[in-house]
Amino acid sequence: MLLEAKQIGFRYERDRPVLRGVDISIQSGEIVGLVGPSGFGKSTLSRILAGYEQPHEGQVLLDGAPLPASGFHPVQLVFQHPEKAVNPRWRMSRTLAEAGDLDASLLERLGVQKEWLERFPNELSGGELQRFCVARALGRGTRFLLADEMTAMLDAITQAQIWQVVLEVARKENMGVLVISHEKHLIHRLCTRVVDLTITHEKT
Ligand SMILES: Nc1ncnc2c1ncn2[C@@H]1O[C@H](COP(=O)(O)OP(=O)(O)OP(=O)(O)O)[C@@H](O)[C@H]1O
């Protein structure tokens, strides 16, 4: 499968484009890094690739077709702030159910404890909550995972544990992964290819 963004243009405010003429593509099985200075539009691009934002120019295609508008989305985004990605009024078991039927061992491998399932998001630490968000994003229908500073707020051991599981699942399921991070060593260790947004970005 191929996820591609072609000639993407995007602005939040009139006359202030954030992205202009950006191209990026990810093949199944690839681990691609996306780097660039702060404020250059990396998170915006990941939201466009996941279908949360519509580009003002260009298009996002999955095997040549537009992203599906309903059902479990094949492109899943996990970002830095898990508390913004879950419904605060739902117990974690309900949030997880959004991913459908998960691989039984996944929660255990991600270090999710059974008793956490009955808790609400505000009864978990950021790191505990992020494990749920990662699990939910690794549902059986996921073909591409976009990790936007996914482990930036976690300690090194938790970061390594989560990435190990993500890479195992990605390899087994032949998922494509986009890694957005300011941590050069993480990008270097994980990625087979790196896209630099300062180069991809069309100069004016
Ligand atoms: N909702 C919004 N409304 C207006 N401007 C926004 C909004 N979200 C982001 N921006 C602006 O768009 C630009 C790109 O932001 P974005 O978060 O995509 O950058 P980034 O490369 O991911 O940055 P960082 O590395 O700091 O996370 C920034 O100038 C930011 O201030």
Automatic annotation (TrEMBL):
Superkingdom to which the source organism belongs: Bacteria
InterPro entries xref list: AAA+_ATPase, ABC_transp_ATP-bind, ABC_transporter-like_ATP-bd, ABC_transporter-like_CS, P-loop_NTPase
Gene3D superfamilies, sorted: P-loop containing nucleotide triphosphate hydrolases (3.40.50.300)
UniProt KW keywords: ATP-binding, Nucleotide-binding, Transport
Domain ABC transporter: from-to ranges: 3-204
Claim: Nucleotide-binding is one of the keywords in the record: yes
Molecular function GO terms recorded: ATP binding; ATP hydrolysis activity
GO biological process: transmembrane transport
UniProt family annotation: Belongs to the ABC transporter superfamily.
Protein's name in the database: Peptide ABC transporter
Organism expressing this protein natively: Brevibacillus reuszeri
Lineage: Bacteria, Bacillati, Bacillota, Bacilli, Bacillales
